[in-house]
Amino acid sequence: MFQMLFSPITINKTEIKNRIAYPSLGLLYSFDGKLNDKYRNFYRERARGGAGIVTVGPVGFDFVGSGPVALQLGSDEAIGDFKVLTKMVKDEGARAWIQLFHAGAYSYSKLMGGEDPIAPSAVFSNYNKTMPREMTIEDIKKVQQSFVDAAARAKEAGFDGVEIIGSAGYLITQFLSPLTNKRTDEYGGSFENRTRFPREIIEMMRKRLGPDYPISIRMAGNDFVPGSNTDEDARAIAKVYEKAGVNLINVTGGWHESRVPQLPMELPRAVYAYLALNIKQAVNVPVIASNRISDPYLAEQLLKDGIADMVNLGRVLIADPYWPEKAKSGRVDEITPCIACSQGCTDQLFSAKPVFCLANPRAGYEGERVVKKTNSPKKVMVIGAGPGGLEAAITAAEAGHHVELYEKSNDIGGQLWIASTPPHKGELMELIRYFDAMIEKYDIDLYLETEVTEDLIKEVQPDFIIAAEGAEPLVPPIDGIGDPKVVSAWEVLGNDPPLGRKIAVIGGGAVGLETAEFLATKGTISPEALYFLFRYEAESVERLRELVFRGTKEVTVFEMLPKVGKGVGKSTKWVLMGNIERLNVNVITNAKVISVRDARVQYEINGKREEMQFDSVVNAVGSRSVKKIASKLDGLGIPYKIIGDSVRPAQINDAIHEGFLAALEIK
Questions:
Q1: Which residues, in sequence order, are CB contacts of 525 under 8 Å at separation 6+?
Q2: Strand partners, 288
């Protein structure tokens, strides 16, 4: 089915069994720079799932360059631990790669009690709000030698290839960019001088490792930072890398500080594949495409079309390490989707916490959270087919229990339907597709439009109950909240009722802002229309921009707190806030709404009462738990577990993880 995807490829003289690579991604499973069982179990699972390359990293070689956020291979003492890991990866059939890392100005070393970060020039870093120290020639030579020494240790540890990180705004890109490299010596100024630092590392590494050992580099296809390197510059840089001795070029998007999104749902699938093609057209070594290559059909097409030679499946293999195996065996519907939510990965990293996954409760817990087949199957009743109940049902069925799943509405998914409605949130529907497939796979008895009562429980006589009744909109004590011109955000996102031109949204949390964005995009042109008008030059670029951001609604958000966006992830909040601004949504903070009678919003701000007239009002102040049946379970004498929003309103990942763990408690 996927002939290109599962065909072998040779890097230098090393054969890779397929075209799938798991790239280096921060995991933060330790803060001492050392490997532990969490790391070992994680990487072994990605290898076991069928990836051709599994890249361990980022791996640093000194504290100043990486601080405590990366594994360390700065001394010979670490070789033994990495030998154990490479053997585990290779025993599962994958090639073990390592990414060598130096953050340069992006390092948080000073914040961790260390020295100032070092960089080509003393240019303030907008990423970590730190002024680095300019590297001396001695510093440059020391870092270059450290890269090479670490590569030699990696080879000794059994890695099949070494990757140098030259992307994301880290040290090498800081040398390449005229924004961050203000040097006047042989390492700054001209293109030749700015590329000298990475070129010398590659040449030294090639000499040290020998002609047959694979060396790769991860590079930015476009920095996406005004005044820095573009995709045209990237072609010239890639040629330098190839001439210096790299055998594989791993192409990604821009810098961390770019104002162009790199990872979230906002990003269309494989949108940066054009950057890989751009590099592939400039060099003769294999090229890897990256960023949001979520499904095997898309991956196969990229390879068939000659856009790249391999594909990176980063967060995709965190969500499902067995993506390759399932694709190869034709079980595509069983792939746990990566929905690009960033909640368990990027948001965690930005909070200096270990990575997990919203959709895969075992990610990061491969050694602890093991689903074992039961020797004493139980009859399990799951109440509620939202994400928590669905995960509980399929996990219990996987463990061998007989599961009956009850849902009062006419379909599964619960709040996923409304959560997927705002712009760029459609990937959440992939979870419903996945759960549908798993219900069929495990032959779970599904009862829709069935409200569970005490009498039904007594009739079914389950051995174990998992209650996942979810939540409902919270109705705040605001005068006029029951007026016909007031609707809930759930109603807006679920049923899209007709609303007036001027709309007030009460509540500036995640749901309020996403509802405001949804409303503000009404009347704007579709991506297909934009493409058509642009292709035929029917309108000016300025007019097209206006058509994208100006619709038929005027939206105002009222929030009691000093800032909006509570509950929005750290790595995606800036994207949402940027869209709110571009769509001309009016945001009023420190505003306590007192009345919404007849759509006239009266509110207090700084002790002063004001009012504004609207056509419609949307209540988006939050939700409350539903415990209609959960509150009665104590008296039934049946073991039970209450999960998800029925416990307290939370996020999707809380519901899914609690559902998984509840199923493991069935004895």
A1: 533, 544, 547, 548
A2: 250, 310
336-348: pLDDT as tens digits = 999 999 999 999 9
Q: Tokens 């500080």 appear where? A: 257
The span from the first CA to the last CA of the chain, in angstroms, equals 41
Query: Kind and range of the H or E element at 642?
Result: strand 640-642
Kindly report the CA angle at 335 between 382 and 381, in degrees rounded to 5?
A: 5
Q: What's the residue count for the chain? A: 667
State the maximum Cα–Cα separation within the chain, in Å, rounded to a whole number.
Answer: 83
Q: What is the pLDDT of residues 261-290, one digit of tens each?
A: 998 899 999 999 999 999 999 999 999 999
Has residue 109 got a pLDDT over 80? no
57: nearest Cα among 179, 182, 174, 218? 218
Q: How far apart are CA 6 and CA 324, in angstroms?
A: 9
Judged by DSSP in three states, 177 sits in coil
- Give, to the nearest 10 degrees, the angle between helix 541-549 and helix 527-535: 170
Pairing of strands 600-605, 608-613: antiparallel
Tokens at 654, concatenated: 């809380």
The secondary structure of 521-567 as a DSSP string is TTTSPPHHHHHHHHHTT-S-HHHHHHHHH--S-EEEEE-SSSSS-TT
Inter-residue contact 426 to 432 (CB < 8 Å) = no
At position 170, the amino acid (one-letter code) is Y
| Cα 165 from Cα 156, distance rounded (Å) | 20
628 Cβ contact list (under 8 Å, min separation 6): 469
**Distance (Å, rounded) from C-alpha 437 to C-alpha 335?**
9
Q: Is the pTM of this model over 0.85?
A: yes
With 0-12 CB in 10 A as exposed, 13-18 as middle and 19+ as buried, what is 113? exposed
Cα distances from 605 to residues 205, 289, 555, 562, in angstroms, run: 63, 50, 19, 11
CB 315 within 8 A of CB 336: no
* Residue pair 506/558 in contact by the 8 Å Cβ criterion: yes
φ, ψ of residue 608 in degrees (nearest 5) = -115, 135
Structural domains of the chain, with CATH? 9-350 (3.20.20.70), 379-473+624-664 (3.40.50.720), 486-621 (3.50.50.60)
* E strand or H helix that includes residue 601: strand 600-605
What residues contact residue 74 under an 8 Å CB cut-off, 6+ apart?
60, 61, 62, 146, 150
Q: Tokens for 17? A: 């069994």
